[in-house]
Design goal:
mainly alpha; 3 strands; single chain; 4% strand; DNA polymerase, domain 1; hpI Integrase, Chain A; three-stranded antiparallel sheet
Length: 336
Amino acid sequence: MDAKRHVVDSQLAPAHPPDERRLVTPDDRAASPDLVAAFLEHLAKERDVAPNTIKAYARDLTEFAGFLGPYFGEGEWGWEKVDRLAMRAFLAHMAKRGLARRSSARALSAVRSFYGWMHRQDIVVDNPARSVGSPKLERHLPGHLDRRQVDTLFKALQTRASEGKFPDVRHLAILELFYSAGLRVSELRGINRQDLDLLAGLVKVRGKGRKERIVPVGDHAQRALREYERVRDQLCARLGSKADRTAVFLSAQGKRISVRAIQQGVTKWLAQVDEGAGLSTHSLRHSFATHLLDAGADLRAVQELLGHASISTTQIYTHTSVERLKQVYKKAHPRA
């Protein structure tokens, strides 16, 4: 059985009962999938890492183990044999496969964390991934709506929602909240009723790494959410005990709405504004940040509102503003 199969099987195998679980020791010299399983368990139980991050790390470490088998050739290999050259070869392997640099950087981060954990457990002598630089990421200017498009979008949504149908009222509330608070799709889906305070105009959001932040909710979004609460309560009354009374946004069946349903609904409306632009739920988050900075908002404040861990992530929106200013300049200045 090759190393890649070992790692995959480790994700499918049931966890050992507490009385049978053994500690990983430095004597485990083979490329044991138990090490990967123990590392992922450490992330989940001791560091409280988000489930999606753990799944991504599991995929990346599976990819890494699958590469190392052929790289070292026939016979057994161990995690301690991996050096800087092997790490660079792994990055080259992903590049040859045509993967984006962002995917390669994420995989390297997973391997670096895995080796950091093994080093702290005295399983390996050092962390070879620390000496390998991450691929330089492409800096794409994010797609966003201009103010005219925002007005067009919400006028159309308000007209449809005025008919009072549950899906249309919900769509208006979802898009208003996306644009008002600059949320990620997973953040919006995860909002519970107790997290939303429309009297104070605030919503508590759980972002990446399960970090919580408080974000203001604008007047337009508050009105849309109050109307949505009315039709949601009617839905819950009809469904009775079948309805989820914890979640804010529900499906027509009374369950917490899925990410896919949110994306499909938002994308459909955004396509009516700019059909060929490929706008998505994240475009509303980009629009939120860009319009705040255009109006003179402080970069640090926007960083906090977006829940970015690094200011460099927020700075891409300043590039968006600069590019637009250049376009205006070229059109308006007689000697541009």
